[in-house]
């Protein structure tokens, strides 16, 4: 026991003497080359959004009833979220229903042609009878003409023989001739009248057929009027269905543009609805960095709105076109919109346009040598170098690096595991300088 105590005391004295008389050096922070995973990533601010926001608007001009649903209300697909006053539409439906019924009744009446068909058949009989009557009148007139001609010849003969016959016989002959002429003229008049009546009867079928043609034209007009009324009726029925405005999806109301009853025009916005389960994260990445990002890259999503360290995500879209942005320093930058989605569901209830941060991993190595990025610097030739600590002296060492991020650098060549390097070397440090490790930095 006494011998052990002497050894401990002697060792302590030796260490104290060494520390007292040891040569000085530049104080530095150091770390050892470690093995482990490393990834190259890009960090940027981001904002949440939805791939599609459904905007519900007025389907037609009219009066919207009070909208009771408020932003944040959960709705189901097909659920009525707003409705119009449909009194005017119901009136239009009633009017056009009546017009269709009136047109149907008029068409039935228009298609009833029994009277006209009977008239045509009777007129054909009348025309046959009149033809016989005209023929009889003609024959009678011809017979009367023959008798009148004979009476005139007989009168002429009597005038020549006036001295040979009695005055009584002469007067009888003269009277017979006059009567025969009058009878002939009466029969001609009857014949002409009969022919006139025949021509009038001949027009009857024409008039009836023309009337049927007009009825057919009236029928075409009635059909057109009926179709127009049906079209107005169908439109009003469609409009009355559209007047019940329903949610197209299971989602949440994001915005309400009108609350109270009011008159609006077709197309005026009423509500915005989105599906919060489809939430995405958008970030604008510098174009020089965006060329290394591809869909499928792993993403760490974090920020105060999440309430935890980070949530896993993945890149789903990289915009094919950059946009010009002005930085906070007034510098014009070309940035590319990169869209990511959540792989694991966040525990906090995120909404649209929430501010977050993303760390997009563009390349990864699961097991490699790595050092802090602050240990790295370039020489005049542009080569990467570090100060490696050997026997309390720094040795300038050129290395080859691979993946880099804000914190770490992959070492491909020039260092070995457990080599010790200076972290954030001061500008005054030179190759071969003595160093005194003031603190070791954990990687």
Overall helicity: 25-40%
Tell me the Rg in angstroms: 58 Å
Shape: rod-shaped
Mean pLDDT: 85
Series of secondary-structure elements, N-terminal to C-terminal? HEEEEEEHHHEEEEEHEEEEEEEEEEEE
What does this structure look like?
The structure is a single chain. 39% of the residues lie in helices and 32% in strands. It is an alpha+beta fold and 443 residues long. It has three domains: 25-50 and 276-440, Efflux pump adaptor protein, beta barrel domain (Elongation Factor Tu (Ef-tu), domain 3, Beta Barrel), CATH 2.40.30; 54-82 and 253-274; 92-241, Four Helix Bundle (Hemerythrin (Met), subunit A), CATH 1.20.120. The strands form six sheets. The chain has a six-stranded antiparallel β-barrel. α2 (87-110) runs antiparallel to α4 (167-242). The protein is rod-shaped, with a radius of gyration of 58 Å. Mean pLDDT is 85; it is low at 1-5 and 12-22.
């Amino acid at each position: 026991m006494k011998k052990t105590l002497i050894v401990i005391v002697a060792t302590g004295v030796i260490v104290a003497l060494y520390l007292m008389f040891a040569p000085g050096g530049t104080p530095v922070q150091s770390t050892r080359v470690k093995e482990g995973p490393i990834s190259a990533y890009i960090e940027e601010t981001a904002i949440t959004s939805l791939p599609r926001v459904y905007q519900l608007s007025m389907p037609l001009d009219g009066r919207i009833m009070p909208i009771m649903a408020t932003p944040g209300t959960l709705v189901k697909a097909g659920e009525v979220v707003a409705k119009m006053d449909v009194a005017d539409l119901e009136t239009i439906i009633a009017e056009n229903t009546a017009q269709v019924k009136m047109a149907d009744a008029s068409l039935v009446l228009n298609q009833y042609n029994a009277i006209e068909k009977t008239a045509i058949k009777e007129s054909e009989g009348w025309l046959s009878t009149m033809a016989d009557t005209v023929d009889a009148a003609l024959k009678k007139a011809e017979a009367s003409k023959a008798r009148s001609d004979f009476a005139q010849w007989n009168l002429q003969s009597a005038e020549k023989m006036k001295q040979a016959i009695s005055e009584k016989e002469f007067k009888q002959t003269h009277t017979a001739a006059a009567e025969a002429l009058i009878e002939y003229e009466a029969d001609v008049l009857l014949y002409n009248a009969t022919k006139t009546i025949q021509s009038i009867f001949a027009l009857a079928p024409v008039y009836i057929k023309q009337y049927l043609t007009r009825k057919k034209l009236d029928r075409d007009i009635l059909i057109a009027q009926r179709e127009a009324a049906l079209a107005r009726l169908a439109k009003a029925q469609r409009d009355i269905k559209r007047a019940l405005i329903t949610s197209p999806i299971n989602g949440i109301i994001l915005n309400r543009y009108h609350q109270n009853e009011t008159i609006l025009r077709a197309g005026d916005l009423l509500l915005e609805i989105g599906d919060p389960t489809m939430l995405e994260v958008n970030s604008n990445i510098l174009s020089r960095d965006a060329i290394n990002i591809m869909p499928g890259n792993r993403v760490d999503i974090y920020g105060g709105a999440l309430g935890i360290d980070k949530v896993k995500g993945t890149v789903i879209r990289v915009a094919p076109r950059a946009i010009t942005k002005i930085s906070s320093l007034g510098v014009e930058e070309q940035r590319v919109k990169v869209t990511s989605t959540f792989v694991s569901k966040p525990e906090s209830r995120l909404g649209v346009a929430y501010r977050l941060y993303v760390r997009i991993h563009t390349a990864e190595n699961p097991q490699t040598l790595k050092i802090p990025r602050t240990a790295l610097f370039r020489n005049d030739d542009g080569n990467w170098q570090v100060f490696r600590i050997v026997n309390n002296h720094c040795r300038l060492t050129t290395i080859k690096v691979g993946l880099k991020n804000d914190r770490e650098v992959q070492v491909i060549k020039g260092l070995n595991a457990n080599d010790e390097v200076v972290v954030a070397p001061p500008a005054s440090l030179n190759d071969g300088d003595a160093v005194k490790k003031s603190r070791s930095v954990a990687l």
